[in-house]
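Hi support team,

I've been running sequence recovery on a batch of backbones for a student project. Most finish fine, but this one hangs at about 90% for roughly twenty minutes before it completes. I'm not sure whether the input is malformed or the queue is just slow. I've pasted the structure tokens below so you can try to reproduce it. Let me know if you need the job ID as well.

Thanks,
M.K.
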């Protein structure tokens, strides 16, 4: 992806969140240049836990087909004793028709919520022992705290205000219908480097072409603004 495109997507994400009456933590609004002027030692938690903006196309080179814009508000660490928080919180903005590819987490359990916009859609399959889709095992999950059973691969539509709980090793693919969706994730500790298994083996973070100056620093590139 081009840096100009990432700058554009984050600008749009900030405006969309305002339209949904959501105010993000103050570090969401610190530009790349302003990060260099901060008391950076006081922001170690943001840097170390990769909180903040994340724009990815999962290596597809087609963000609007396969991708998402995320903002991680809170997280802990499974390996760093300084950060004992056992939970994470994340905003995911999904464009109408945009798809997040099938993946599961070995450790993380998560609630996926629809906080505003269109309809949030999800398909789920259990992972087999060799990490393929189990097309026979039914999917029983908590939908707004009610146990509901779905066929493997059945489309689960989540209206605004509702959410589902996804246990570990449950493959899921997510997309939006009838408008852009503000999805929210409340989960155990999030580790995008070690806890994600993608069915098609796609990369989690995208390569960036620097065609203009960085306006917003993504969560995996704080080294570029540290002084």
């Amino acid at each position: 992806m081009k840096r100009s495109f990432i700058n554009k997507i984050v600008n749009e994400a900030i405006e969309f969140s305002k339209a949904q009456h959501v105010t993000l933590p103050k570090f969401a609004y610190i530009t790349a240049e302003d990060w260099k002027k901060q008391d950076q030692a006081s922001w170690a938690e943001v840097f170390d836990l990769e909180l903040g903006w994340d724009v990815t196309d999962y290596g597809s080179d087609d963000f609007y087909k396969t991708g998402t814009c995320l903002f991680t508000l809170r997280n802990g660490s499974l390996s760093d004793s300084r950060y004992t928080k056992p939970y994470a919180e994340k905003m995911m903005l999904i464009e109408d028709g945009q798809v997040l590819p099938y993946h599961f987490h070995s450790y993380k359990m998560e609630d996926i919520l629809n906080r505003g916009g269109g309809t949030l859609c999800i398909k789920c399959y259990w992972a087999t022992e060799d990490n393929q889709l189990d097309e026979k095992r039914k999917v029983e999950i908590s939908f707004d705290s009610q146990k509901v059973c779905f066929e493997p691969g059945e489309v689960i539509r989540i209206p605004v205000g509702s959410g589902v709980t996804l246990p570990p090793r449950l493959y899921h693919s997510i997309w939006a219908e009838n408008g852009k969706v503000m999805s929210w994730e409340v989960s155990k500790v999030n580790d995008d480097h070690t806890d994600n298994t993608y069915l098609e083996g796609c990369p989690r973070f995208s390569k960036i072409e620097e065609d203009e100056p960085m306006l917003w620093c993504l969560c995996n590139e704080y080294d570029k603004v540290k002084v």
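--
Follow-up from support: It reproduced on our side and the slowdown came from queue contention, not your input. The radius of gyration is 17 Å. No action needed from you.
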